[in-house]
Amino acid sequence: MSAKAASDVPKEQWAQVVEQKGGPVVYKKIPVAEPGPDEVLINIKYSGVCHTDLHAMNGDWPLPVKLPLVGGHEGAGVVVARGSLVKDIEIGDYAGIKWLNGSCMSCVYCRQSAESVCPSPALSGYTVDGSFQQYAIGKAAHVARIPKDCDLAAVAPILCAGLTVYKALKESNAKPGMHVAIVGAGGGLGSFALQYAKAMGLHTIAIDGGEDKKQVCLELGATTFVDFATSKNIVADVKKASGDGLGPDAVILLAVSEKPFQQASEYVRSKGTIVCVGLPGNAFIKAPVFDTVVREIVIKGSYVGNRQDTAEAIDFFRRGLIKAPYKVVPLSTLQDVYDLMIKGQISGRYIVDTAN
Ligand code: NAD
Ligand code: ZN
Ligand code: ZN
Protein backbone atom coordinates (compact mmCIF):
# COMPACT_ATOMS: atom_id res chain seq x y z
CA MET A 1 0.00 0.00 0.00
CA SER A 2 1.21 3.52 -0.72
CA ALA A 3 2.10 5.58 2.33
CA LYS A 4 -0.19 8.36 1.17
CA ALA A 5 -2.79 8.43 -1.59
CA ALA A 6 -5.70 10.49 -2.91
CA SER A 7 -9.07 8.86 -2.13
CA ASP A 8 -10.26 8.53 -5.73
CA VAL A 9 -7.55 6.37 -7.37
CA PRO A 10 -9.37 3.63 -9.35
CA LYS A 11 -8.28 -0.01 -9.62
CA GLU A 12 -8.51 -0.02 -13.44
CA GLN A 13 -7.67 2.47 -16.16
CA TRP A 14 -7.43 2.98 -19.93
CA ALA A 15 -4.07 2.40 -21.59
CA GLN A 16 -2.51 1.86 -25.01
CA VAL A 17 -0.59 -1.42 -24.95
CA VAL A 18 2.00 -2.76 -27.44
CA GLU A 19 1.36 -6.52 -27.30
CA GLN A 20 3.78 -7.60 -30.04
CA LYS A 21 6.80 -6.17 -31.82
CA GLY A 22 5.66 -3.94 -34.68
CA GLY A 23 2.33 -3.15 -33.00
CA PRO A 24 -0.36 -1.99 -33.47
CA VAL A 25 -1.15 -0.49 -30.06
CA VAL A 26 -4.24 -1.94 -28.37
CA TYR A 27 -6.52 0.43 -26.43
CA LYS A 28 -7.75 -1.49 -23.40
CA LYS A 29 -8.36 -1.46 -19.65
CA ILE A 30 -5.48 -2.58 -17.42
CA PRO A 31 -4.90 -2.50 -13.62
CA VAL A 32 -3.51 0.65 -11.94
CA ALA A 33 -0.08 -0.13 -10.41
CA GLU A 34 0.86 0.64 -6.79
CA PRO A 35 3.94 2.82 -6.18
CA GLY A 36 6.89 1.23 -4.34
CA PRO A 37 8.47 2.95 -1.29
CA ASP A 38 10.60 5.35 -3.42
CA GLU A 39 8.01 5.93 -6.14
CA VAL A 40 5.05 8.16 -6.94
CA LEU A 41 1.87 7.44 -8.91
CA ILE A 42 0.95 10.20 -11.35
CA ASN A 43 -2.50 10.69 -12.86
CA ILE A 44 -1.30 11.43 -16.39
CA LYS A 45 -3.43 14.09 -18.08
CA TYR A 46 -1.46 14.56 -21.31
CA SER A 47 1.42 12.74 -22.96
CA GLY A 48 3.44 13.83 -26.00
CA VAL A 49 4.15 11.26 -28.71
CA CYS A 50 7.89 11.02 -29.47
CA HIS A 51 9.42 9.21 -32.44
CA THR A 52 11.21 7.08 -29.82
CA ASP A 53 7.81 5.52 -28.95
CA LEU A 54 7.58 4.36 -32.56
CA HIS A 55 11.15 2.97 -32.48
CA ALA A 56 10.17 1.09 -29.27
CA MET A 57 7.05 -0.42 -30.86
CA ASN A 58 9.02 -1.46 -33.96
CA GLY A 59 11.99 -2.84 -31.98
CA ASP A 60 14.43 -0.72 -34.08
CA TRP A 61 17.26 -0.49 -31.57
CA PRO A 62 19.91 -2.90 -30.19
CA LEU A 63 18.29 -2.64 -26.73
CA PRO A 64 15.63 -5.11 -25.55
CA VAL A 65 12.17 -3.66 -25.01
CA LYS A 66 9.60 -4.84 -22.42
CA LEU A 67 6.53 -6.67 -23.77
CA PRO A 68 3.65 -6.14 -23.31
CA LEU A 69 4.52 -2.46 -23.11
CA VAL A 70 2.74 0.77 -22.26
CA GLY A 71 4.80 3.37 -24.18
CA GLY A 72 5.11 7.10 -23.58
CA HIS A 73 7.68 9.28 -21.82
CA GLU A 74 6.35 12.83 -22.06
CA GLY A 75 3.58 12.42 -19.48
CA ALA A 76 2.39 15.41 -17.49
CA GLY A 77 -0.10 15.07 -14.64
CA VAL A 78 -0.94 15.19 -10.95
CA VAL A 79 0.63 13.14 -8.14
CA VAL A 80 -2.05 10.90 -6.59
CA ALA A 81 -0.02 8.53 -4.39
CA ARG A 82 3.48 8.28 -2.95
CA GLY A 83 5.58 5.61 -1.26
CA SER A 84 6.68 5.66 2.38
CA LEU A 85 10.19 7.03 1.63
CA VAL A 86 8.96 9.98 -0.47
CA LYS A 87 8.90 13.21 1.49
CA ASP A 88 9.58 16.00 -1.01
CA ILE A 89 6.57 15.76 -3.29
CA GLU A 90 2.94 16.18 -2.25
CA ILE A 91 -0.32 14.63 -3.37
CA GLY A 92 -1.79 17.19 -5.80
CA ASP A 93 1.59 18.45 -7.07
CA TYR A 94 2.17 18.60 -10.84
CA ALA A 95 4.81 16.14 -12.02
CA GLY A 96 6.06 14.52 -15.20
CA ILE A 97 7.19 11.10 -16.42
CA LYS A 98 10.28 11.51 -18.59
CA TRP A 99 12.41 8.97 -20.51
CA LEU A 100 14.71 8.31 -17.56
CA ASN A 101 12.18 6.87 -15.13
CA GLY A 102 14.88 5.96 -12.63
CA SER A 103 18.59 5.23 -12.29
CA CYS A 104 20.73 3.45 -9.69
CA MET A 105 21.87 6.72 -8.01
CA SER A 106 25.09 5.05 -6.83
CA CYS A 107 27.27 4.39 -9.92
CA VAL A 108 30.06 6.76 -10.92
CA TYR A 109 27.78 8.40 -13.53
CA CYS A 110 24.81 8.89 -11.21
CA ARG A 111 27.16 10.30 -8.56
CA GLN A 112 28.21 12.95 -11.10
CA SER A 113 24.67 13.71 -12.31
CA ALA A 114 25.31 11.96 -15.64
CA GLU A 115 22.38 9.68 -14.89
CA SER A 116 21.40 9.28 -18.56
CA VAL A 117 24.46 7.02 -19.02
CA CYS A 118 23.79 4.97 -15.86
CA PRO A 119 24.37 1.30 -16.84
CA SER A 120 21.16 0.18 -15.13
CA PRO A 121 18.47 2.75 -15.93
CA ALA A 122 14.70 2.29 -15.96
CA LEU A 123 13.38 3.79 -19.21
CA SER A 124 9.76 4.94 -19.36
CA GLY A 125 7.79 3.36 -22.16
CA TYR A 126 10.69 1.02 -22.94
CA THR A 127 11.96 -1.09 -20.00
CA VAL A 128 9.12 0.00 -17.66
CA ASP A 129 5.57 1.07 -18.51
CA GLY A 130 5.28 4.72 -19.48
CA SER A 131 2.68 7.46 -19.84
CA PHE A 132 0.21 6.22 -22.48
CA GLN A 133 -2.06 5.27 -19.58
CA GLN A 134 -4.08 7.25 -17.05
CA TYR A 135 -1.87 6.37 -14.06
CA ALA A 136 1.90 5.94 -14.36
CA ILE A 137 4.68 5.19 -11.86
CA GLY A 138 7.94 7.13 -11.59
CA LYS A 139 10.89 7.11 -9.20
CA ALA A 140 10.36 10.14 -6.95
CA ALA A 141 13.99 11.26 -7.37
CA HIS A 142 13.55 11.43 -11.13
CA VAL A 143 10.00 12.62 -11.87
CA ALA A 144 10.00 16.15 -13.28
CA ARG A 145 8.74 18.83 -10.90
CA ILE A 146 6.26 20.95 -12.87
CA PRO A 147 5.29 24.37 -11.48
CA LYS A 148 1.53 24.85 -10.92
CA ASP A 149 1.35 27.77 -13.38
CA CYS A 150 2.25 25.50 -16.33
CA ASP A 151 -0.41 24.24 -18.73
CA LEU A 152 -0.17 20.43 -18.50
CA ALA A 153 -0.76 19.81 -22.23
CA ALA A 154 1.74 22.39 -23.46
CA VAL A 155 4.43 21.39 -20.95
CA ALA A 156 4.26 17.63 -21.75
CA PRO A 157 6.65 17.69 -24.78
CA ILE A 158 9.24 19.58 -22.75
CA LEU A 159 9.76 16.33 -20.77
CA CYS A 160 11.58 14.72 -23.71
CA ALA A 161 11.67 16.91 -26.84
CA GLY A 162 12.37 20.15 -24.99
CA LEU A 163 14.81 18.68 -22.49
CA THR A 164 16.73 16.75 -25.16
CA VAL A 165 17.25 19.65 -27.55
CA TYR A 166 18.04 22.11 -24.74
CA LYS A 167 20.78 19.75 -23.50
CA ALA A 168 22.03 19.15 -27.07
CA LEU A 169 22.30 22.90 -27.68
CA LYS A 170 24.35 23.23 -24.48
CA GLU A 171 26.54 20.32 -25.64
CA SER A 172 27.10 22.10 -28.99
CA ASN A 173 28.99 24.90 -27.22
CA ALA A 174 27.30 27.41 -29.54
CA LYS A 175 27.36 30.92 -28.06
CA PRO A 176 24.83 33.73 -28.63
CA GLY A 177 25.15 35.12 -32.14
CA MET A 178 26.51 31.89 -33.64
CA HIS A 179 24.76 29.80 -36.34
CA VAL A 180 23.33 26.35 -35.61
CA ALA A 181 21.91 23.98 -38.22
CA ILE A 182 18.89 22.05 -36.95
CA VAL A 183 18.40 18.90 -39.06
CA GLY A 184 14.82 17.61 -38.83
CA ALA A 185 13.73 21.08 -37.71
CA GLY A 186 10.05 20.69 -38.56
CA GLY A 187 9.51 17.59 -36.41
CA GLY A 188 8.86 17.26 -32.68
CA LEU A 189 12.38 17.76 -31.36
CA GLY A 190 13.20 20.16 -34.20
CA SER A 191 10.40 22.62 -33.52
CA PHE A 192 11.49 22.84 -29.87
CA ALA A 193 15.14 23.17 -30.91
CA LEU A 194 14.26 26.24 -32.98
CA GLN A 195 12.56 27.84 -29.98
CA TYR A 196 15.32 27.03 -27.45
CA ALA A 197 17.99 28.21 -29.92
CA LYS A 198 16.13 31.48 -30.42
CA ALA A 199 15.81 31.97 -26.66
CA MET A 200 19.57 31.30 -26.36
CA GLY A 201 20.38 34.02 -28.92
CA LEU A 202 21.42 31.69 -31.76
CA HIS A 203 20.75 31.95 -35.51
CA THR A 204 19.16 28.77 -36.86
CA ILE A 205 19.38 27.11 -40.26
CA ALA A 206 16.37 24.78 -40.36
CA ILE A 207 16.65 21.67 -42.54
CA ASP A 208 13.58 19.54 -43.29
CA GLY A 209 11.29 18.70 -46.21
CA GLY A 210 8.09 20.25 -47.61
CA GLU A 211 6.15 23.53 -47.62
CA ASP A 212 4.31 22.82 -44.33
CA LYS A 213 7.57 22.29 -42.45
CA LYS A 214 9.12 25.36 -44.07
CA GLN A 215 6.19 27.49 -42.90
CA VAL A 216 6.37 26.11 -39.34
CA CYS A 217 10.16 26.55 -39.11
CA LEU A 218 10.10 30.16 -40.29
CA GLU A 219 7.26 30.96 -37.86
CA LEU A 220 9.30 29.45 -35.02
CA GLY A 221 12.19 31.81 -35.72
CA ALA A 222 14.46 29.94 -38.16
CA THR A 223 16.78 32.37 -39.93
CA THR A 224 16.78 30.23 -43.12
CA PHE A 225 15.06 27.04 -44.31
CA VAL A 226 16.81 24.46 -46.50
CA ASP A 227 14.56 21.78 -48.06
CA PHE A 228 16.42 18.46 -48.05
CA ALA A 229 13.97 17.00 -50.57
CA THR A 230 14.32 19.72 -53.24
CA SER A 231 17.73 21.33 -52.64
CA LYS A 232 20.15 20.61 -55.49
CA ASN A 233 23.12 21.03 -53.17
CA ILE A 234 22.37 20.83 -49.43
CA VAL A 235 26.00 21.41 -48.43
CA ALA A 236 26.29 24.61 -50.48
CA ASP A 237 22.86 25.87 -49.34
CA VAL A 238 23.62 25.31 -45.64
CA LYS A 239 27.03 26.98 -45.88
CA LYS A 240 25.52 29.94 -47.72
CA ALA A 241 22.95 30.37 -44.94
CA SER A 242 25.64 30.72 -42.27
CA GLY A 243 26.36 34.41 -42.83
CA ASP A 244 30.01 34.41 -43.88
CA GLY A 245 29.65 31.19 -45.92
CA LEU A 246 32.02 29.12 -43.78
CA GLY A 247 29.23 26.88 -42.44
CA PRO A 248 27.33 26.68 -39.15
CA ASP A 249 29.24 26.63 -35.85
CA ALA A 250 27.18 23.64 -34.73
CA VAL A 251 24.84 21.03 -36.17
CA ILE A 252 22.09 19.32 -34.16
CA LEU A 253 21.10 16.09 -35.93
CA LEU A 254 17.50 15.16 -35.11
CA ALA A 255 16.53 13.35 -38.31
CA VAL A 256 15.34 9.76 -38.42
CA SER A 257 17.38 8.79 -41.49
CA GLU A 258 21.09 8.09 -41.90
CA LYS A 259 22.02 10.38 -44.80
CA PRO A 260 22.17 13.71 -42.91
CA PHE A 261 24.52 12.08 -40.37
CA GLN A 262 26.99 11.55 -43.23
CA GLN A 263 26.50 15.04 -44.67
CA ALA A 264 27.01 17.17 -41.58
CA SER A 265 30.82 17.07 -41.56
CA GLU A 266 30.80 18.47 -45.12
CA TYR A 267 29.08 21.72 -44.13
CA VAL A 268 30.00 22.28 -40.46
CA ARG A 269 32.49 25.12 -39.91
CA SER A 270 36.09 24.23 -38.99
CA LYS A 271 36.33 23.75 -35.22
CA GLY A 272 32.54 23.27 -35.24
CA THR A 273 30.55 20.66 -33.29
CA ILE A 274 28.16 18.03 -34.65
CA VAL A 275 25.73 16.76 -32.02
CA CYS A 276 23.99 13.47 -32.84
CA VAL A 277 20.55 13.12 -31.21
CA GLY A 278 18.25 11.34 -33.69
CA LEU A 279 18.36 7.54 -33.49
CA PRO A 280 17.63 5.98 -36.91
CA GLY A 281 17.82 2.18 -36.62
CA ASN A 282 20.94 0.41 -37.96
CA ALA A 283 22.58 3.71 -38.92
CA PHE A 284 26.24 4.70 -38.89
CA ILE A 285 28.07 8.02 -38.77
CA LYS A 286 30.76 8.29 -41.44
CA ALA A 287 33.12 11.26 -41.67
CA PRO A 288 36.38 11.72 -43.56
CA VAL A 289 39.31 11.31 -41.17
CA PHE A 290 41.37 13.92 -43.06
CA ASP A 291 38.77 16.70 -42.77
CA THR A 292 37.87 15.79 -39.20
CA VAL A 293 41.54 16.15 -38.22
CA VAL A 294 42.69 19.17 -40.22
CA ARG A 295 39.44 21.10 -39.72
CA GLU A 296 39.27 20.06 -36.03
CA ILE A 297 35.64 18.92 -36.16
CA VAL A 298 33.98 17.59 -32.99
CA ILE A 299 31.40 14.80 -33.39
CA LYS A 300 29.50 13.77 -30.26
CA GLY A 301 26.30 12.17 -29.00
CA SER A 302 23.74 13.70 -26.65
CA TYR A 303 21.12 11.67 -24.82
CA VAL A 304 18.20 13.35 -23.00
CA GLY A 305 19.44 15.33 -19.97
CA ASN A 306 19.82 15.10 -16.22
CA ARG A 307 17.47 16.35 -13.48
CA GLN A 308 19.02 19.81 -13.49
CA ASP A 309 18.69 20.08 -17.30
CA THR A 310 15.03 19.06 -16.85
CA ALA A 311 14.41 21.85 -14.33
CA GLU A 312 16.14 24.41 -16.58
CA ALA A 313 14.26 23.28 -19.72
CA ILE A 314 10.93 23.54 -17.85
CA ASP A 315 11.90 26.99 -16.55
CA PHE A 316 12.50 28.28 -20.12
CA PHE A 317 8.97 27.06 -20.89
CA ARG A 318 7.48 28.57 -17.73
CA ARG A 319 8.91 31.98 -18.63
CA GLY A 320 6.95 31.86 -21.93
CA LEU A 321 10.06 31.53 -24.13
CA ILE A 322 9.11 28.18 -25.69
CA LYS A 323 5.98 27.95 -27.85
CA ALA A 324 6.11 25.10 -30.33
CA PRO A 325 3.04 23.88 -32.25
CA TYR A 326 1.14 20.92 -30.82
CA LYS A 327 -2.12 19.13 -31.43
CA VAL A 328 -4.12 17.35 -28.72
CA VAL A 329 -5.91 14.13 -29.75
CA PRO A 330 -7.58 11.34 -27.71
CA LEU A 331 -5.37 8.57 -26.25
CA SER A 332 -7.61 6.11 -28.11
CA THR A 333 -6.23 7.43 -31.47
CA LEU A 334 -2.52 6.85 -30.73
CA GLN A 335 -2.11 4.42 -33.66
CA ASP A 336 -3.29 7.16 -36.08
CA VAL A 337 -0.52 9.41 -34.71
CA TYR A 338 2.07 6.69 -35.41
CA ASP A 339 0.70 6.29 -38.95
CA LEU A 340 1.20 10.03 -39.62
CA MET A 341 4.67 9.90 -38.04
CA ILE A 342 5.72 7.04 -40.31
CA LYS A 343 4.75 9.19 -43.31
CA GLY A 344 6.77 12.14 -41.92
CA GLN A 345 3.61 14.25 -41.87
CA ILE A 346 3.80 15.62 -38.33
CA SER A 347 4.90 19.22 -37.81
CA GLY A 348 5.60 19.88 -34.13
CA ARG A 349 4.18 17.45 -31.56
CA TYR A 350 1.01 15.40 -31.18
CA ILE A 351 -0.15 15.06 -27.58
CA VAL A 352 -2.63 12.44 -26.37
CA ASP A 353 -5.31 13.37 -23.85
CA THR A 354 -5.78 10.41 -21.49
CA ALA A 355 -9.38 11.39 -20.59
CA ASN A 356 -10.67 9.83 -23.82
P1 NAD B 1 9.77 13.45 -35.75
O1 NAD B 1 9.29 12.33 -36.61
O2 NAD B 1 8.77 14.34 -35.11
O3 NAD B 1 10.77 14.40 -36.57
C1 NAD B 1 11.77 13.93 -37.43
C2 NAD B 1 11.92 14.99 -38.54
O4 NAD B 1 13.07 14.65 -39.35
C3 NAD B 1 10.72 15.06 -39.48
O5 NAD B 1 10.23 16.40 -39.53
C4 NAD B 1 11.29 14.60 -40.81
O6 NAD B 1 10.67 15.26 -41.92
C5 NAD B 1 12.76 15.03 -40.67
N1 NAD B 1 13.69 14.37 -41.59
C6 NAD B 1 13.67 13.10 -42.07
N2 NAD B 1 14.71 12.91 -42.92
C7 NAD B 1 15.39 14.08 -42.97
C8 NAD B 1 16.55 14.52 -43.68
N3 NAD B 1 17.21 13.71 -44.52
N4 NAD B 1 16.98 15.79 -43.49
C9 NAD B 1 16.32 16.64 -42.67
N5 NAD B 1 15.19 16.27 -41.97
C10 NAD B 1 14.76 15.01 -42.13
O7 NAD B 1 10.71 12.76 -34.64
P2 NAD B 1 11.13 13.31 -33.18
O8 NAD B 1 10.13 12.89 -32.19
O9 NAD B 1 11.51 14.73 -33.31
O10 NAD B 1 12.45 12.40 -32.91
C11 NAD B 1 13.59 12.51 -33.75
C12 NAD B 1 14.62 11.44 -33.42
O11 NAD B 1 15.25 11.76 -32.18
C13 NAD B 1 14.08 10.02 -33.26
O12 NAD B 1 14.99 9.10 -33.84
C14 NAD B 1 14.03 9.84 -31.76
O13 NAD B 1 14.09 8.50 -31.34
C15 NAD B 1 15.26 10.59 -31.36
N6 NAD B 1 15.33 11.04 -29.95
C16 NAD B 1 16.56 11.05 -29.36
C17 NAD B 1 16.67 11.51 -28.06
C18 NAD B 1 18.01 11.55 -27.39
O14 NAD B 1 18.04 11.73 -26.17
N7 NAD B 1 19.11 11.44 -28.11
C19 NAD B 1 15.55 11.95 -27.36
C20 NAD B 1 14.33 11.95 -28.01
C21 NAD B 1 14.22 11.50 -29.32
ZN1 ZN C 1 11.40 11.08 -26.55
ZN1 ZN D 1 23.71 4.78 -11.98
TrEMBL record:
SMART domains: PKS_ER. The keyword Ribosomal protein does not apply. Pfam families: ADH_N, ADH_zinc_N. One of its GO terms (molecular function) is alcohol dehydrogenase (NAD+) activity. CDD domains: CAD3. InterPro entries: ADH-like_C, ADH-like_N, ADH_Zn_CS, ER, GroES-like_sf, NAD(P)-bd_dom_sf. Coiled coil: none annotated. Its EC number is 1.1.1.1. It comes from the Eukaryota. Residues 22-352 form the Enoyl reductase (ER) domain. One of its GO terms (cellular component) is cytoplasm. PANTHER family: ALCOHOL DEHYDROGENASE 1-RELATED. This is alcohol dehydrogenase. The lineage of its organism: Eukaryota, Fungi, Dikarya, Ascomycota, Pezizomycotina.
